[in-house]
Every structure is written in structure tokens, then in C-alpha cells.
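I am writing to request your help with a piece of structural work I have in hand. I set the record out below, with my sincere thanks for your time.
___
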Amino acid sequence: MEQQKATQEKPTYEQERTAPEPQEGKAEERAKNEQQEESAGNAQQENMQAQQEAPEEEQPKAEQGQNDELAAANAKIAELEAKIKEMENRYLRLYADFENFRRRTRQEMEAAEKYRAQSLVSDLLPALDNFERALKIETENEQAKSILQGMEMVYRSLLDALKKEGVEAIEAVGKPFDPHLHQAVMQVEDSNYEPNTVVEEFQKGYKLKDRVIRPAMVKVSQ
């Protein structure tokens, strides 16, 4: 009986293994773990604060290199854009110069075609003046009259040929004086005409289309 009682009081192996640990050991271990976690958190916070407070000179080399490459690329882009702008302005100037040259050339060609007879007309004007002076001669001689009639026919033929080219005489007598059409060589007082009116024509004037070849030489009333 005593042996059986001792056996019951002695703890088995299973009971010893599952027996609760002392409370003091758990508290120490928990405090130790909390201290380690607090230390790790403080270290991480200090590391983050150090990174935020670090000066720009201590940035990582990789980030600094990327910034340098970006700045260089932007500078190159700006340089190319400036060159493109300069070439565009040069092209616009050349195009404007070419358009002006082409317009002047076209105007000169049109003027040359329009006034192609100007040189010939200028050379013929003295002959026309001689015909006009000769036709003013009065004679009773029949032979002289016949010659004058022939000269008048030639004179009329010249005027018709010149008229086809756009040549016409400038009207003078009785017209208001126009300095673009008339050349005043004398002024007189004449009650039969209003002031600044052509009274007499000394030499005919001619124009080719809208260009004056020679102004009329006239006398003007005051």
C-alpha cells in the first residue's frame, strides 16, 4: 500500500513536460523582446531622419548622374530648336526676296512689252514736228500744194501707225494746265480764257498709252 501511494504521488514524464513555466521567466523574455523591438524602431527612425536631413551633396551618385544627363539633354534640345528657328527665318527671308525678285521681273517684262514702241516713237517725234511745220506753209502754187498733200498723206499714215501702238497726241489748247502733260514756256493775260488754262500750243506732246513720251509745250493764261 505504501509503495502504491508513492507511485501515485511521483509526477510522470508527461506531467513534467507540460508543466507551466515559471511566470518570472516569461516576463523577462517579454521585456527583452519589447526592448529589442523598441531599439530596432528607434534605429529605423534615426536612419530615415538622417536620410531626410542629409545635404544635396550627399545624394546617391546614380541619382546625380541622371540629373546631369537630363540637363545635358535639355541643353541639346534647346540648341537644336534655336538652329531650326534660325534656319526657318533664313528660309522665310530668302523666299520673300525671291518673291520680290519674281514680281519685279514680271513687272519689267510687262512694261517692256507694253512700252516696246517707246524708243521708236521718240525717234519719230522730230520727223512728225517737221511734217507739222511744213504743212502749216501756205502757198498758191499748185505744184507746191500737190507736194503738201502728199506730205500730209505720209504724215497721216505715220500717225495711224503710231496710234495702233498706243501713241496719241496730248490735248492742250483750252484744257486746264497739267504739269504732268504740259510744259509752260509762257504766261499771258487773256480774258477769253480762265486762269491757268492753256491758251496756245507751240509743240505737240505725245504719250504712249499711259506714259508721257513728251509733254506739250504751251502758253498758259494767268
Notes: The CA atoms of residues 94 and 100 lie 10 Å apart.
